Amino acid sequence: IQSHNLAISKFNEDRNFAMFTKKFSTATAVGLAALLSASMASATDMTFNTKEINGRSSYIGVATSSGDLGDISFRETRGSESTEGRNGKKIKFDDPDGLLVTLGNDYGYARLETEFGYREADVASMTGVADASYTGVDGTAHIGTAMVNLAFEYSVDPGALSGGSSSGFTVTPFITAGGGALGVAGNLFYKRIDLTANQESIDAGFFLAPAIQGGAGITLGLPFGVEVFGKYSEMLAYTYNYKDSNDIHIKSLTGGLRVNF
89, 220, 224, 245: which sits with the fewest CB atoms below 10 Å from its CB? Predict the structure, then answer.
């Protein structure tokens, strides 16, 4: 009876999680689509131009990202097809590399943008109870993000700042914060701690979580509306304790290019 009740409880937990994920993903998609449509409409109304200092514009940006994905601890319930008895696990990842694309509007002292990102991280190792190491560990996490960001910035012309004529360049420090969704699709394979030949696997599926991020950086404005920028940021995705897991934490160094219209 106790096993039956546990099975029903687990079924209800998974069903509620699936319902929440579906509702959250739908709401996020609608919000991002609305902002993306507004940004694209604004961009098509403007022509390629040299951005005025603290002036208005629309822009498209592309950036590469490298960082650190925090260790993830979770509890995997043993299935009927598995002989693995150690449920508590911690996974370490190699540094995730990725690509980010942004589309937004600059209002002079603030920017509002949509950001779409992709990161990939290989599984480096996995430990279980009492930090016992698993062997034959292999797997990859594919991480997609869709965010809405708000940045505050202030631009200065180095030449004008020193009392001379305009240099044609601008320096713009900024801070940024945003929210949206993070999705993870991946797979994980490993051998039992007792070193038998049996190969085990863990949920090769999709996981969606709400996420927030914040960061700071600096932009160098070049002629013809081109900007290069660098940024440090941190992202936190809430897993709502799914499988007793801790939240997903990503630290990133990003560098890229923006073109203003």
Answer: 224
Location of structure tokens 């690509």: 99
pLDDT at 26: 52
Q: Which tokens go with 124?
A: 């480096």
- Other beta carbons within 10 angstroms of residue 102's beta carbon come to 20
Q: For the chain, which ranges sit under pLDDT 50?
A: 2-21, 23-24, 27-28, 39, 42-43, 46
Amino acid at 64: T
Assigned token pair, 104 = 């937004």
202 burial via Cβ count (<10 Å: 0-12, 13-18, 19+): buried
Task: List, for residues 191-232, the tens digit of each pLDDT value.
Answer: 766 555 566 666 556 778 899 999 999 999 998 889 999 999
Contact yes or no for 229/220 (Cβ under 8 A): yes
List the structure tokens of 49: 């131009």
Q: What does the block give as tokens for 18? A: 């699936």
Cβ distance 74 to 244 under 8 Å? yes
pTM comes to: 0.73
35-58 pLDDT per residue, tens: 555 545 544 554 556 677 888 999
